[in-house]
């Protein structure tokens, strides 16, 4: 069986990624994988700066945000203590909550998507996910979930923005369909059903 694969979970805010990542990690562990789960923006100083911008403690132009994500991602891959490349070398299967497809979708609402793809080319060259899983949800439903679960709303969490981001995700999938392995699943149903479909897809990678 193939071990240490790299899988990215994608979706708009409130799509249920974090629930699915936990369920997928459990299944992989049951199948004998050592699993390392991680996320972007990371908790590095660069990731913290991004979160400060999102929570309005700091101000920055969208182009600067896109650039910070490029740096955060490269550090996520390359840092010597717990970088993704190191974890893969150590034999872990790595699951990340967001990777460069998030940048393609979120930032191209504000700038040219090709620029965002170019800016992330080094990460794509260093490590392409074996599988990108996109958890699809109508933006109206994700907004309801966000409003129920959070005391404060972050920068990108408005209905209008999430609608645009969802459209950009689909535009990005079309643009990169030759290079990327993308699986789309609908999450407007019981989490266990979504998890079963995801596991069926991931199992095919592991043969
Ligand atoms: P995330 O941590 O998934 O959201 P949550 O607040 O639910 O934990 O992501 C935070 C925000 O970062 C989310 O609105 C999407 C945005 N984002 C980008 O704009 N570009 C990127 O490249 C990534 C990875 C995330």
Description:
- It contains 10 helices and 5 strands.
- The chain has 207 residues and is of the alpha/beta class.
- It has a single domain, classed as Rossmann fold, CATH 3.40.50.300.
- The site of thymidine-5'-diphosphate has 12 residues, from α5.
Named CATH topology: Rossmann fold
Secondary-structure content class = alpha/beta
Distance between the termini: 5 Å
Bound small-molecule species:
thymidine-5'-diphosphate
- The number of helical runs is 10
What is the string of helix and strand elements?
EHEHHHEHHHEHHEH
Assign the CATH superfamily: P-loop containing nucleotide triphosphate hydrolases
Major pleated sheet: 5 strands, parallel
Short description:
The protein has 207 residues and is of the alpha/beta class.
Write the layout of secondary structure elements.
Blueprint: E1 6-10, H1 17-30, E2 35-39, H2 45-54, H3 62-78, H4 84-89, E3 93-97, H5 100-107, H6 113-119, H7 121-126, E4 131-136, H8 139-149, H9 159-175, E5 182-186, H10 191-206
Parallel strand pairs: 1-3, 1-4, 2-3, 4-5
This protein binds thymidine-5'-diphosphate.
């Amino acid at each position: 069986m193939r071990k240490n694969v790299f899988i990215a979970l994608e979706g708009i805010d409130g799509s249920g990624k974090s629930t699915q990542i936990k369920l997928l990690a459990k299944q992989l562990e049951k199948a004998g994988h050592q699993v390392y789960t991680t996320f972007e923006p990371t908790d590095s100083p660069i990731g913290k700066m991004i979160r400060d911008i999102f929570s309005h403690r700091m101000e920055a132009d969208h182009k600067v945000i896109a650039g910070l994500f490029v740096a955060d991602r490269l550090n996520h891959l390359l840092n010597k203590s717990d970088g993704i490349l190191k974890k893969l070398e150590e034999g872990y299967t790595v699951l990340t909550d967001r990777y460069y497809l998030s940048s393609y979708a979120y930032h191209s609402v504000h700038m040219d998507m090709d620029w965002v793809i170019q800016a992330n080319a080094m990460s794509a060259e260093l490590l392409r996910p074996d599988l990108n899983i996109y958890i699809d949800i109508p933006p109206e439903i994700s907004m309801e979930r966000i409003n129920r679960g959070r005391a404060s709303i972050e920068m990108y969490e408005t209905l209008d923005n999430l609608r645009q981001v969802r459209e950009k995700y689909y535009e990005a999938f079309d643009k990169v369909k030759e290079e990327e392995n993308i699986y789309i699943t609908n999450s407007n149903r019981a989490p266990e059903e979504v998890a079963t479909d995801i596991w069926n897809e991931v199992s095919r990678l592991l043969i």
